[in-house]
Amino acid sequence: MSAKAKTRRRAKVKRAAARGVPAFLLAAALRAQSEGVFIADRRMGPHGLKILFANDSFCAMTGHSAGELVGRAHGVLHDERTDVERLRRWLPKALPGQPLVGEGFLRRADGTAISAAWSFDPLCDARGRVTHVVATYRDQTEKRRLQEALVHAQRLDAVGRLAGGVAHDFNNLLSVINGYCEMLAQHVTANPQALRQVSEIHNAGRKAAGLTQQLLAFSRRQPFNARTINLNLLVQDNAEILRRLLGDGGRLDLELAGDLANVRTDAAQFQQVLLNLVLNARDALRKHGRVVIATANREIKVGLNRRLTDTPPGRYVAISVADNGTGMDAETLKHLFEPFFTTKPEGKGTGLGLALVYGVVQQSGGFIAVRSSLLVGSTFEILLPAVREAVAPVPATVPALPIARGTEAVLLVEDDDLVRKMVAGILTTDGYRVFAAKSAAAAMREVQEQDRPVQLLIGGLAGEGEKLARKLLGTHRGLRVLCTGNHDFKMPVAWLAPARQASLNKPYALSELLKAARTLLDTP
């Protein structure tokens, strides 16, 4: 068979195969594609390929009708001119099976931008020449948003670990500063000017300690005394002080749901959450300002959390703080919960208020979301898991004992040299027999060299610290334990009687340590 005959035969076979699928069915299949598709002439104009056909998905993606797209250059839909230039360089050497792929932003008819990934494939005739180009577009705006949310969460987690480490070391320094201030104050009582100066140093140290507590809250290492509370009661109890915070700058309205479920959180820390959110709202208010605190029961059903960042199904209590103030732009929203980020003038804010809010919500097992528009206002909404338990009674405070002196044997385990020296010094001055060690292993060697049992252990219980305490308890059943500085260690411990254990978080005042030690030792 001649070459011409073979060519005619192949063409005949192709026409027969094409007749197997009607043209209208191919067109319907193209229109039904879930991804955006357009077909264009291969010739490039100044602004790209001339669109000859666009399916319904591509029209919905771009916000244009098919009539608006046909005859138009595709490049006018792309945000970046380089997208068209890449296509121009690829087209002369385009081969079947070797598409041009890329991703970027498309500009919709309403002016908004979407993130898209695309693929351009050549359509060739029987001689292998490119006659048309078929382009497939996939909207990945939601995927990009999820990636950004994941990166943001990872950044906050990394910053939280850093902040927690800094706060831990800073607490040790503050314990030394504040402790020596207390000791120094006793020696300068006869000199009013010196006493005032020492007091100023002590006040500054206490303020710095407050900042470290906010950093620890953000990093979820803040001591968390969770109990069952009702957010309606918490809001009502604090409504007067919240109104005073707003002053004449705005009005506070409460929209509290009836029969609100209870939640488990630290009441004192969640009170700080409310204060910070209302203060932020106050600073954003304009004329005729209004802040609304609202509560509601919320149920998220299975199937409504299809994305990784969605709130898991369950019963929640929602509390929101909304204002009609100046609002925030997208860039501000990206960094809102990062420590030390603030839009306030220098000296007007620490940038830790919303970091504390974020940390408390996370420790409560909750979720927080922010909606904001410039010149419209902002809404912070918090979801906390609902619980069926009744509201827990407010724990009674232990009265402070006026006498803190003693003669008992005390084992102090403290890795910070300055803190260890300071605490050992004040305990020795008050009459205690003190054995001080830098680590649990060194403490055990110290105890083995002594001839009397330890009656009080002061130190951390994480890791080797717990092993040390258990071993001491085996030789002296009357052991008391004062746990210091372990924010991640859960107290009370099950292996020791509740009355014989207590915790004290850094930075602590020496007076608090002395009172806590004496209270434990005086417990029968």
Overall mean pLDDT stands at 80
Kindly report the CATH topology of the largest domain.
Heat Shock Protein 90
Which homologous superfamily in CATH is the superfamily of the largest domain? Answer: Histidine kinase-like ATPase, C-terminal domain
Derived from helix and strand composition plus strand pairing, the structural class reads alpha/beta
Q: Indicate the radius of gyration in whole angstroms.
A: 34 Å
**Unreliable stretches:** 9-14, 395-402
Number of DSSP E strands: 17
Q: Give the count of structural domains.
A: 4
Tell me roughly what share of residues is in helical segments.
40-55%
Number of helical regions: 15
Shape: elongated
What kind of sheet is the major sheet? Answer: 7 strands, mixed
> What is the beta-strand fraction?
15-25%
Descriptive overview:
Mean pLDDT is 80; it is low at 9-14 and 395-402. This protein has helices at 3-19, 23-31, 56-62, 66-69, 81-90, 141-187, 192-218, 231-246, 267-284, 330-334, 353-363, 417-429, 440-448, 464-475, 510-521; strands at residues 36-45, 48-54, 100-107, 113-124, 130-139, 227-229, 250-255, 262-265, 289-300, 314-323, 367-373, 377-387, 409-413, 433-437, 456-459, 480-484, 501-504. The protein folds into 4 domains: 20-139, Beta-Lactamase, CATH 3.30.450.20; 145-218, Helix Hairpins (Orthogonal Bundle), CATH 1.10.287; 227-387, 2-Layer Sandwich (Heat Shock Protein 90); 409-521, 3-Layer(aba) Sandwich (Rossmann fold), CATH 3.40.50.2300. The protein is an alpha/beta fold. It starts with a helix and ends with a helix. Strands 6, 7, 8, 9, 10, 11 and 12 form a 7-stranded mixed beta sheet that branches. The chain contains 15 helices and 17 strands. Strand 13 (409-413), helix 12 (417-429) and strand 14 form a beta-alpha-beta unit. It is elongated and about 100 Å long. The longest helix has 47 residues, at 141-187.
